[in-house]
Amino acid sequence: MQIIDGKLVAKLTRENIARQVQALPQDKLGKIGLAVILVGDDPASKVYVRNKINGCAEVGIASTLEAMSADSTFEEVAAKIEQFNADPEISGILLQLPVPKHLDEAALLHLIDPSKDVDGCHYVQKGKLWTGEPELIPCTPYGVMKLLDHYSIPLEGKNAVVVGRSNLVGKPLAQLLLDRNATVTVCHSRTRDLGSITSRADIVCVAIGKAKFLKADMVKEGAVVIDVGMDRDENGKLCGDVDFAEVAPKCSYITPVPGGVGPMTVTMLLQNTVTAYKLSRGIE
Ligand code: NAP
Description:
Blueprint: E1 2-3, H1 6-22, E2 33-39, H2 43-59, E3 62-68, H3 74-86, E4 92-95, H4 105-109, H5 123-130, H6 139-150, E5 159-163, H7 170-179, E6 183-187, H8 194-198, E7 203-206, E8 223-227, E9 231-232, E10 238-239, H9 244-247, E11 251-254, H10 262-281
Parallel strand pairs: 1-11, 2-3, 2-4, 5-6, 5-7, 7-8, 8-11
Antiparallel strand pairs: 9-10
Helix pairs in contact: 1-10, 2-10, 6-7, 6-10
Bound molecules: NADP nicotinamide-adenine-dinucleotide phosphate.
NADP nicotinamide-adenine-dinucleotide phosphate is lined by residues 140, 163-166, 168-170, 187-191, 194, 207-210, 228-231, 261-262, 265.
């Protein structure tokens, strides 16, 4: 059994991103920059935003944090998005989710210029992904693919099961695996006899938000297990959707939590920002 070291892969990927940033041509339209919009003061969101801003600094991307009060109106947030859409020094725009309940999250996400949609949430980016021409890929599934590739885990013809069908993780991950010629099954909360499906899989990816949900009897010997979950166990300790202690001995590869998929998410946001900059300037 080999543990997939997300911290290591994130470090190597960030070094590569920093080299890409260094090599970007000086441009009269301005430097590469990421704008992060945070509405409200959710403590978890603040931590995520800080990691994104720090990640930018690490690889040489300028960043702007727009912290807006929790009672901001739709029009106020929309105006901020439009301002960043028009700013040539902003290559990527990220609206930190979730936004406060009174705001229409989907409507705000679709105001972001698709060419600056570094979270891959806009219909245009989703459509490109779905038609096999991915451009700005949602960061977490993109990170999962990077991890699989770093360890040269074969995907073609493999039986891959994705548990969870969220727009941000499960669905795009299923599509990315399909693009790589895996045979993909997507499971969700209404799936019957989930264990009989996961236990036939060569690759099991779990993204459901339920602590230690995937047990050893739901996994076949030698499977690759990717745990996207970020949950708290009964003692309040960070854990994933996979019961790591009992599942790991059966796996060929497994991601730990923390230190697996998590470090890749911000990393791929940085990559998407570079990709958006290159696309906007016609750089290959
Ligand atoms: P989400 O939007 O809440 O979606 C959860 C999905 O899991 C839904 O499709 C739901 O099915 C399914 N589900 C829930 N209970 C299930 C069960 N008992 N059996 C089978 N499927 C079940 O969650 P998300 O945003 O995709 O996030 C999932 C997890 O990943 C969370 O722990 C989150 O914190 C974590 N996450 C981590 C990162 C990272 O960087 N590591 C990034 C994003 C998310 P239905 O559709 O039928 O309701």
